[in-house]
Amino acid sequence: MALFTSRGPVAEVFRFGLVPIACRARNEDRSQVALSLNNNEVNIYGRAASEWKLQETLQGHDLRVTGIDWAPSTNRIVTCGAVSLLCI
């Protein structure tokens, strides 16, 4: 689904299931997105045509992931969890 203004599309809407997305980050060229579905995992999706396909699931937190960042120059993902655990 796309959202439009008089000048064209401004955003696209995608669904990743029924569970709330707690946090997310995209890589520099926006071809991949890392998101946590309100649990202790980070799912990495890649863009395939007009939809997102699950590429990998990262695990390492005991509790819910509360933050994700994707560094543009190093292409590394940093996450933090509910107990202040930082995973790089």
Automatic annotation (TrEMBL):
The keyword Transmembrane helix does not apply. One of its GO terms (molecular function) is actin filament binding. One of its GO terms (biological process) is Arp2/3 complex-mediated actin nucleation. It comes from Homarus americanus. This is Actin-related protein 2/3 complex subunit 1A-like 14. Keywords: Cytoplasm, Cytoskeleton, Repeat, WD repeat. The gene is Arpc1a-L19. Gene3D superfamilies: YVTN repeat-like/Quinoprotein amine dehydrogenase. The keyword Repeat applies. The lineage of its organism: Eukaryota, Metazoa, Ecdysozoa, Arthropoda, Crustacea. GO terms for cellular component: Arp2/3 protein complex; cytoplasm. It comes from the Eukaryota. InterPro entries: ARPC1, WD40/YVTN_repeat-like_dom_sf, WD40_repeat_dom_sf. Its main location: cytoplasm. It is found in: Cytoplasm.
